[in-house]
Design a protein that fits this description.
With 290 residues, the protein is an alpha/beta fold. It has helices at residues 2-40, 75-83, 103-119, 134-143, 199-205, 238-241; strands at 43-51, 58-63, 89-92, 123-125, 146-147, 151-157, 160-167, 189-194, 209-212, 221-222, 226-227, 229-230, 235-236, 251-255, 258-262, 280-288. It has 2 domains: 1-40; 44-288, Metallo-dependent phosphatases (Purple Acid Phosphatase, chain A, domain 2), CATH 3.60.21. α4 links the parallel β4 (123-125) and β5. α2 (75-83) packs parallel to α3 and α3 (103-119) runs parallel beside α4 (134-143). The chain crosses the membrane at residues 21-38.
């Protein structure tokens, strides 16, 4: 009798161990899927603003911080997500590969640009602190990309006169002043492209729209609490630790006469730590203000 009882208890114990093992692996699979979804699936972030300076809707596609890798989000995925939205202009906002990458990876953003251009999309670019190699920039230009290195030009977008400016700062000195290089134009829609955000200086300049990148949306976004860590101020849980602290992580930020927009970009540099902040391409519409 006792022997049967021991056999029964042993069987029950094995079943419990099997259940625990199954539950453990189920959680591993769930966590892996969540990690993969947050770091290696692409979303389209559609945003819009209004301006009295435009008479018809303009649509811009913003691609940034690709930090090209062999196993990251593919060019085909990025192209198809943008092409589906039929933008008027495509912007590359820098750090499209990581510093000291091999040539194969440096060529990925060039190939992406070539695909857009061959399909008929005008592409404008600024560089970041990583993608500064002159050969890479030459390759972009040879592909037909307009690389703006402290340059500006007027372009027509759907009958709207756009004053497009681009800067390639890898840092900002205390005396940085955009007014030394450019002037705003009250008869045009002033649009500034810059990889690294600098809210105070950009607000002082006063473009109708400034589009930036670099922050990666601060990678980990906690529900209701915002970024886990703010790279600009080097602060953990910045929205909790200092309610007066200004955080420029991603999205729109208003200033007098215009707005700054920051995209969280695509790549997972320095590692695949994104949470609640998926890789994105941005479709940004500028609509007439009635």
């Amino acid at each position: 009798m006792s022997e049967k009882k021991e056999i029964k208890q042993g069987g029950t114990q094995k079943k419990e161990e099997k259940k625990k093992s199954s539950a453990f692996w189920l959680w591993i699979i769930i966590l892996f899927i969540l990690w993969w979804f947050n770091n290696y699936t692409l979303k389209t972030n559609s945003v819009s603003m209004k301006s009295a300076k435009v008479s018809s809707k303009m649509r811009f596609a913003v691609i940034s911080d690709l930090h090209a890798t062999k196993h990251g989000i593919k060019n085909k995925t990025i192209f198809e997500a943008v092409d589906k939205e039929k933008p008027d202009v495509v912007f590359f906002l820098g750090d499209m590969y990581t510093r000291e990458s091999e040539r194969e990876l440096m060529s990925k953003p060039v190939e992406l640009a070539e695909e857009f251009i061959s399909t008929g999309y005008p592409v404008y670019a600024v560089t970041g602190e990583h993608d500064t190699d002159r050969e890479y920039i030459n390759d972009l230009e040879n592909a037909g990309v307009n690389v703006l290195e402290y340059e500006s030009e007027y372009i027509d977008v759907k009958g709207n006169r756009v004053h497009l400016m681009g800067i390639d700062n890898v840092y900002y000195s205390p005396t940085f002043n955009l007014g030394n290089e450019f002037s705003t134009d009250e008869n045009s829609f002033d649009l500034l492209l810059a990889h690294i955000p600098n809210y105070e200086k950009f607000a002082a300049f006063g473009a109708d729209l400034t589009i930036c990148a670099d922050t990666h949306g601060d990678m980990v976004q906690l529900p209701f609490l915002g970024p886990l860590y703010d790279t600009e101020t080097k602060t953990w849980l910045p929205k909790l630790s200092d309610k007066e602290l200004k955080i420029y992580d991603k999205g729109f930020f208003d200033y007098d006469g215009g707005k700054m927009f920051i995209t969280s970009g695509i790549g997972v540099y320095p590692g695949p730590f994104r949470f609640n902040n998926r890789p994105e391409v941005v479709i940004l519409d500028v609509e007439p203000k009635r």
